[in-house]
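ok trying this again, last paste got cut off
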Amino acid sequence: MTDSTRGAFTLIELLVVIAIIALLVSILLPSMSRARGNARAVVCLSNMRGAAQGVQVFANDHHGRFQLATDEVGIQLVDPSRQTFAYDRKFEHRGELLAWPVALGQALDVGYKSNSDWGVRATNLADAQARIRAAEGIQDFDLMHCPSDAIGLSTPFYPRNKGSSNNGLRGGEQAADMSYWGRLSYGINEDVVGAEVEESAGNPACWTAARNGSDWIGCIGELTYPINSPCGRAQGRRLQGVLEKAHDPGTVGLIFEAGPSTDVGVGDDVEFANLITSAGARGPYLGDFQQRFGTRMPNNRHPNGKLSILFVDGHGEHAKPVAYSKDNDFQKKLPSEYSPRVRVSPYQARPVSR
């Protein structure tokens, strides 16, 4: 009768197995992370396509216009009778301008009647977080939230209080620089749905191109040019919500993923203002906006920095950064160009020297 012995792993064999498992995990985890990121990006793009339906419904009910996003100066310019756009009638018979996510929610029958059904008035992110936790009756609008948004709260910026310069937003506190905040991962193109505001100082706010002899030059919005100069004669006015006025609407973004990538080092409420604009930018494209207002746009919410965008013509698409600026004193390598090349300014772009 022979003795039988049971085989067992030696210590070296066990260590080899553990090393192999660790190697496989290190290889697979990034792929799994990218897969989750891509899945979240798909959800965000799906949100955009859902929003497109609401934009169309709202525009059909408002003579081809989407909801206005402007201050009291712009309202008085565009809609002094408060009959053209959607207003919060909760506190006074005239009411204040509905924030565009609330107007979109109304178009999609979410059940909003007032700005306060969606968000709270606050002066900054910390204030908004505290007020949201304490608020009652807030109804989330899931279509306006991207699962990859690490912050979760932002402000559409309008309506907002601007101290004594504002004629008084109705219903609620009147602290200067207080605006509505809610669960919001997206921003609106102010060039398309805005009006000329106090900051415009009477100048056209959109970047536009102007003929200068046989050449074209770029005219930066909200800058003062000599009245008889090519840019002084150019009229890059905001479209006041009239979607059909946008040149080549399939290349002009209407709703963008917006908001900072992180709240670390970001404290100014303007940086959380989800307004996309070409005012002050050196060109008409999304990359030009990024160079001007980099903290208003997330750069690492999705793999490869891609962003979900709803275009004025109603189609949704991802845009991916393909070029970056050099490091500077304020930001690190902000995207300077995207593919496809998305325009913020609704005016025709011409090749210009920068």
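PB: full thing came through this time. The helical segments are 11-61, 72-78, 100-107, 125-134, 190-193, 230-233, 286-292.
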